[in-house]
Amino acid sequence: MRILLKISLWICISFLSGWALVSCTDNTEVILDENSVNQYDIYFGSFGGLCGHSDSMSITMNLDINLTYKDFCTDTDFENEGKLTQEEYSSLISLLSKSSFSDLNHNSCDRCVDGLDTFLHVVGDDGFTHRIVYGHDDDISSIDDFIDRLNELRESLKPE
């Protein structure tokens, strides 16, 4: 009888230990399907230190694009908005590698010493969201093509 009690106790402890181990693990899973066609809101801009500038561009799932710019030293201040074509939007999104972007975890503060920081925040209709703030020395080469296209769009919205 004593052996049966020990075996039952061992089984009970094993079951509870296994259950505790499984229930305490993180079951959240971020699905990064590079081939899925998703929609994204994209927020991109920069902000500088003491005598710098600030700009912010948003591109929404409904193809709206908006740029706000402020230069604190020259009192330059403007806002411009427009609409992307579906082809332009799709071309931009095709340059975004969610896995490469997710691997970046920059949180720079070059502006703290009168430098310039750039932010990129992407929010998807699939639940994906990620934000980085990077400076001059941060390596963002894995998303260079995407950043280059965002810079082109930003420049196209600036007044001549």
Descriptive overview:
It is a single chain. The protein is of the alpha+beta class and 160 residues long. The chain has one domain: Mago nashi (Mago nashi protein). 32% of the residues lie in helices and 29% in strands. It contains four helices and six strands; from the N terminus they run αββββααββα. The protein has a six-stranded antiparallel β-sheet with strand order 4-3-2-1-5-6, covered by helices on one side. A hairpin with a 4-residue loop joins strand 2 and strand 3. The radius of gyration is 24 Å and the shape is globular. The termini are far apart.
Features:
Mago nashi protein, 6-stranded antiparallel sheet, 4 helices, single chain, 160 residues, alpha+beta, 29% strand
Mean pLDDT equals 80
Largest sheet: 6 strands, antiparallel
CATH class: Alpha Beta
Structural class: alpha+beta
Number of domains: 1
CATH architecture field: 2-Layer Sandwich
Q: Main sheet: which strands, in order across? A: 4-3-2-1-5-6
Helix content: 25-40%
> Topology as H/E string?
HEEEEHHEEH
Q: How many helix segments?
A: 4
The shape is globular
Q: How much of the residues is beta strand, in percent? A: 25-35%
CATH homologous superfamily - what is it?
Mago nashi
Q: What is the fold-level CATH name, i.e. the topology?
A: Mago nashi protein
Termini gap = 92 Å
Low-confidence stretches: 12-35
Q: Would you count the extended β strands for me?
A: 6
Radius of gyration: 24 Å
